[in-house]
Amino acid sequence: MSSKFNEYASDYDAWFLENENVLYSEVKLVAHFLKDAGEVFSVGCGSGLFENILKKEFGILVKNGIEPSKEMAAIARKRGLKVSITTAEEMELEKENYDTILFNGTPSYITDLQKALNKAYEALRLGGKLVVIDVPKESSYGVLYNLAKAVGSWDHELLGGVQPRDPYPIDLVKVANWRTTAEKIKMIKNANFKNLQFAQTLTKHPLYSNALAEEPIEGYDCGDYVAICATKN
Fold first, then answer.
1. Which residues are registered as beta bridge partners of 100?
2. Which of 89, 172, 206, 224 could be joined to 202 by an S-S link, Cβ 3.0–4.6 Å?
């Protein structure tokens, strides 16, 4: 899977910068649960685009992370992140070493998410936070992506008139495995996290989601990008 992100390392940033309101809607959602986050570790930091914006525009510092794609990691390192090249399942983190562990947009690309969440629990200090953010399978984007994945292309009559002007690269859609919010809640609880909270953004249909940058709202019933925050008690 990392090979696909190697191929799209530069295109990843370009897509988000072309869809700037989508980007900032998502960044604001990430920032929502990273207030007073302490020492943050980013699981699947990609190119470090989000972490760079969080630092420059929100005063939120994320210094460390992992990323399986060498090309993406190289870009993140240029942005000042200390990045280890490994997967979420194979990452080796010191026990009780972080205040917050962030999975931003990565759960759909992690094969054994339960294993990764279990490792995150062990790496968090008592009272630490887990923040899991992704496109839910049941959301408008989730349904649209799975349809594109099923037909193997954005250029299909079933997607005519309903896809965004500049859709996410089909090769990255094909390798994703979107999970429902309920599935992620179950895994987070199985990892022994407590006190779950929810926030969401991208509440407009995908055709219109880049029209404006949204502020996050509570819940997970209408957003195409949903954050789950939980604590290690």
1. 40, 129
2. 224
What's the token pair of residue 153? 């292309």
Give all domains of the chain, ordered by start, each with its CATH number: 2-133+179-231 (3.40.50.150)
pLDDT digits 0-9 by tens, 82-118: 999 999 999 999 999 999 999 999 999 999 999 999 9
Give burial (CB, 10 Å; 0-12/13-18/19+) of 211. exposed
The residue among 107, 106, 127, 121 whose CA lies nearest residue 38 is 127
Tokens matching residue 173: 């859609």
Q: CA 203 from chain center: how many Å?
A: 17
What is the Cα 116 distance to its own chain's centre?
14
Q: Taking Cα atoms as reference points, which of 6, 19, 1 lies closest to residue 168?
A: 19
pTM of the model: 0.94
CA angle, 99 as apex, 93 and 103 as ends, to 5°?
65
pLDDT tens for 67-79 read 999 999 999 999 9
